[in-house]
């Protein structure tokens, strides 16, 4: 006799439903993966602002350095580069009967900048104007500021009559010590005005500072063979100065 048995289906069905409800999440070696953060954009606006501030600061600093260098620092020179000079000389041309005359001036020698500045007060005798003079050896120019006329005159530097800063400094130091005295005679140079100057910046910072805001004219050295006519003498004025072992009289004739 054969015995047939049947397994209950309802007994296994709940197990299948239970397995179907489970959700399996795979793990990467048991580590937790952090969430990805969004990448921030580069602050272009901030970078442009910083560059602008740097350019603006340089625009303020560089002109300030230039102004301090040429307008303030140049005025502060050591005492051994400032000289108060009195020179005795004989005027054998215009005043042979007066005997010896005295020329007084203040001299500033700027060795590093390679230029000289001379200030001539009102002379004790007539016939010469008070003036300020700049000899710029870097530019090869000389500027005469006639205080009486309130005009500036520019000409080429005459290295024959004007000593370089180092040589003039050594001369004045020796004169101050009393070990050497300059010769006491006078030479003359004649200049004629050739035209008006408008662009002052091309003359360099030292002459520009002296002649800024003043009428400025170009000078040409007159040939020594040509003499000043009598009708021109009324239009001429003289500046006597000392930057060598002799006194120089610069005669400036204006044809305008």
Q: Report the average pLDDT across residues.
A: 78
Largest sheet composition: 10 strands, mixed
- Helix count from the secondary structure assignment: 4
**Structural class category:** alpha+beta
Name the beta content range: 25-35%
Series of secondary-structure elements, N-terminal to C-terminal:
HHEEEEEEHEHEEE
Question: What shape does the CA trace take?
Answer: elongated
General description of the model:
- Helices cover 24% and strands 30% of the residues.
- The protein contains 4 helices and 10 strands; from the N terminus they run H-H-E-E-E-E-E-E-H-E-H-E-E-E.
- It has a 10-stranded mixed sheet with strand order 1-2-3-4-5-6-8-7-10-9.
- The protein is elongated.
Q: Secondary-structure blueprint of this entry?
A:
Blueprint: H1 9-20, H2 44-72, E1 82-90, E2 100-110, E3 115-120, E4 131-136, E5 141-146, E6 151-156, H3 165-177, E7 186-196, H4 205-211, E8 215-221, E9 236-242, E10 247-253
Parallel strand pairs: 6-8, 7-10
Antiparallel strand pairs: 1-2, 2-3, 3-4, 4-5, 5-6, 7-8, 9-10
């Amino acid at each position: 006799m054969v015995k047939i048995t049947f397994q209950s289906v309802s007994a296994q069905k709940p197990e299948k439903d239970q397995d179907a409800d489970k959700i399996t999440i795979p793990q990467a070696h048991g580590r937790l993966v952090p969430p990805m953060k969004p990448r921030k954009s580069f602050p272009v606006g901030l970078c442009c602002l910083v560059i602008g501030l740097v350019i603006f600061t340089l625009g303020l600093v560089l002109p300030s350095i230039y102004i301090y260098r040429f307008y303030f620092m140049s005025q502060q020179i050591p005492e051994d580069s400032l000289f108060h000079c009195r020179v005795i000389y004989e005027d054998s041309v215009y005043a042979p009967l007066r005997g010896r005359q005295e020329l007084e001036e203040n001299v500033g020698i700027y060795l590093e900048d390679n230029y000289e500045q001379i200030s001539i007060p009102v002379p004790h005798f007539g016939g010469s104007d008070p003036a300020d003079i700049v000899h710029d050896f870097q530019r090869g120019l000389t500027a005469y500021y006639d205080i009486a006329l309130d005009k500036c005159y520019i000409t080429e530097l005459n290295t024959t009559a004007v000593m370089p800063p180092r040589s003039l400094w050594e001369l004045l130091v020796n004169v101050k010590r009393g070990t050497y005295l300059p010769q006491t005679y006078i030479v003359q140079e004649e200049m004629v005005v050739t035209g008006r100057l408008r662009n002052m910046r091309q003359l360099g910072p030292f002459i520009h500072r002296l002649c800024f805001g003043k009428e400025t004219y170009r000078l040409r050295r007159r040939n020594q063979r040509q003499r000043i006519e009598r009708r021109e003498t009324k239009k001429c004025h003289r500046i006597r100065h000392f930057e060598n072992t002799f006194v120089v009289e610069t005669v400036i004739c204006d044809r305008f």
